[in-house]
Amino acid sequence: MSMKYVVYQASRRGGRPYNEDRVGYAYTSDAMVMVLADGMGGHNHGEVASQLTVQVITSLFQNRAKPVLPDMAAFLLDGIYAAHDAINEYAMRKRMADPPRTTCVVCVVQKGTACWAHVGDSRLYQFSRRAMLYRTRDHSAVQQLVDEGRLSEADMGVHPDRNKLYNSVGGFMLPDIEVEEPVKLQQGDVLFLCTDGVWPELTPEEMLSTLRAYPLERAVKQMLDQAEFRAGQYADNLSVVAMRYGEEHFNAGELVLGDDLGLDGFTTQLRKLGGQGERTTTDSDVDKAVAEIKAALARYPLPGKS
Question: CA Rg, the chain, in Å?
Fold first, then answer.
């Protein structure tokens, strides 16, 4: 019996000239991975960093999940470190003075269990049918202010230091990857990964009530509409990849369940995210980089193999 779930991803440019977010997921009959990355706009070619991150991690998943991952936490660490190496190698080949950087959140699900890791201020939320069970802590200056009791959660998205991150994938410092202990999923649980174009505009209570009211695809679209509307003309890129575990109990013929995705086990939204406003100048460079990365993944062998 294959794992049952519904998964949906979406990304919008918002009010920005480019979309530097990338999202994707990959799956087997018994396991799946979701990846979300937000290229850091202050650094050259943030979209290259986010694209490489999604492609490296989904490729590594396909390499290791046979049909499940032997070690979920090891996969998360290896995948993010591999993405970090790939970004820096790309920057070196391009003779960039400063490598591009990205946030990253990755979640794997298999055997009724989820495990996730993150770097930066892109978030994962876990919701049951009744409550928010968990959210990742941002690796940011404003999160530190919240932890110290000097700032409210509600004001995180408007604080002048909101873009100050102390952790990234790509760059001269090795990322400090925060990996959570695996958690057991219950029927109806939602894992909701989003960038900082989304979470400052929506409270967890609003997210939960929307997820309770609608099938996943409609719920995500509704939340993106709301976040984009509230942020107005200055909206950041907005991206979500989410999954609802188990069967969806809504009357909606358009729902897609886990083993009927019909996408050959792999999907990413890499280029055609926002229509106009996408950069195309780096596409051939990134294609070359990805071809080299697939060869480089041999450096991250399956456990027990030299």
Answer: 18
Model pLDDT for residues 208-255, shown as the tens digit of each residue: 999 999 999 999 999 999 999 999 998 999 999 999 999 887 654 434
| Cα–Cα distance list, 203 to 10, 13, 77, 198, 207 (Å) | 19, 21, 30, 10, 6
CA distance 169 to 223: 27
Structure tokens at 171: 């760059």
Question: Which segments within the chain are labelled E, that is strand?
Answer: 5-12, 21-27, 31-38, 104-110, 113-119, 123-127, 132-135, 178-179, 183-184, 190-194, 238-245, 266-269
Q: Please, what are the domains in the chain?
A: 5-299 (3.60.40.10)
Between CA 120 and CA 255 the distance in angstroms is 32
Q: How far apart are CA 250 and CA 252, in angstroms?
A: 6
pTM for this entry: 0.85
